[in-house]
Specification:
disordered N terminus, single chain, 20 helices, two-stranded antiparallel sheet, 2 strands
Length: about 475
Amino acid sequence: MKLGARETARKSLDKARPAHIPSGANTADARHHSRGLAILSGTEAWERFSFYGMQALLMLYMATVLLPAGADRLVWGFGSFRMIVETVTGPLSDQALASQIFGLYTGLVYLTPMIGGIIGDRLLGGRRTVLVGAGLMALGHFLLAFDASFLIALAALICGSGCLKGNIATQVGRLYAPDDARRDRAFLLFNFGINIGAFAGPLICGSIGETHSWHLGFAGAGFGMLIGIAIYVSGWRHLPADRPRGRDVVREAGQAGDARRIAALLGLVALSLCYNVPFGQGYDVFPLWIHDAANRHVGGFEIPVAWYLASDGLVTVLSTPLVMLLWKRQAAAGREPRVASKFAIGCAMMAAADALLALFAYAWPEAHSIGAFWGFGYFLLSSSAYLFVMPVLLAAVSRAAPARLTATLMGAAYAGLFVANLTAGWLARFYMPLGPVRFWGLHALIATAGVLIAVALRGPLSSPLYPASEAA
């Protein structure tokens, strides 16, 4: 069959499909997930491999190698960049400047999906926008292999992530009808793929960077992104078709309750800061703290700092089936927690993780006095907590957002991570003045505030997001 005929047939099928069933959804068997979910999860796994593999190296590389060696001389435009940053913050030490750059980078990575969502919704379509973003990210990782292009590389990664993040997550939601019970589980499976990449990236790229060559580790992240692009292109026909845009757009009328749903979703984005601000230190200050505080020697082997960060993804991968089983049993008994209650659980676990670090810092204040394996306890708690916050938020947006605003509100969810990481970068400059005990204790209090807010507002934040028959 010629391409034009195939396209005509596909459009005919789409017109024949009931309006509530998304194009690309697997409607043949409600017990199983669409093939498109496997493609999107595989793509995102390799994207996260590259993202977290690079991120595991970034802070240590800046604080211990690039800035002490004289970044003003090595990096194009760095002198002017540093002057702009210090005009706002005042003079910064190498550690404080590295933390500020890290916070700006990770923050902007999660702000640009709002723009990427608009591009996907109104201009290029979601699938093409994902490809553009993936290409920019691959370019950025390879540019990090050279000191001179350091700032250009970060800019390419920020723009690429903006194009990719919101649009790929929106495609997951569009594989399922709005009332499909598989949706929340699909986002857990999607995040399962994400965290396989988050585990493997730091383990492989981080180890290469710390033990062989920083630049080779960054390049390894670039090759991972190329694999992700190959998976996405190979599964193109299993992806949901883009929504109409431009002249083909049919204006959708607003529905009753849209304003309440949007307000509840934005409230959840704000509440997620109480988890994401403390968790942001896991890749910012934690690598520096564990580098100085822990005795990482086991026999004749020294555990790379990147391995602690790799445990973030591993814990999330291992926890996902357990959480899915828990929610399935709770749903069968009619006791599955609503969105805000899940947030409260996640924030409570995050508070416990930071309290644990404060306890370690208090009990073993001397350098290199903490046992090699105690640092993994932090990610055991904080990474399990992740499953009760971010996948839940993304699933809520995909389910409850007005269809015309889904990608834009998905971008708003990631914009919350912009605020969180920017705030975490700002707070990181107080690590040395406060000392480890008070620094980690402060972040435990931020997460505890999230628990209290989620419990107090669980009705207004949850009820608008469910059908009226379930909203009680």
